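Class prep. Sample record?

___
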Amino acid sequence: QVQLVESGGGLVQPGGSLRLSCAASGFTFGSRRMRWVRQPPGKGLEWVSSISSDGSNMIYATSVKGRFTISRDNAKNMLYLQMNSLKTEDTAVYYCAMEETRGQGTQVTVSS
C-alpha cells in the first residue's frame, strides 16, 4: 500500500533553516507528481509546493516562494523540502502528499 513517512521537523528560531524529508513506498514514485502541504495550529490544510514527476517543474505558494525549495530523488524514492529564513507563521504540521494520500506529518515550530 502507499506509504509516505515524513521526518526532519523540529524547533527552530526565526530566520533558521530546516530540511524535511519524505520516504515514499508502495507506488511508482518516479511517475507521480508530489507536493507538500501544511496545517498551522487551529487552521486548515494549506498547499505549500508541488514538483513534477521528473523534478523539472516546481511551483510554490506565494507565502514561501524564495524561501523554500522542493526537490526529489527518484532513485531513492525521496521527496525533500528545504526551508530557509523561517518565520513564526511557518509553524505547522507538514505533510508530503501524493493525490489524496498524506503521511503522518512532521511538526515544525518556529519560535524564539
In short: The longest strand covers residues 18-25. The radius of gyration is 13 Å. Residues 91 and 109 are 5 Å apart (CA to CA). The chain has no helices and eleven strands.
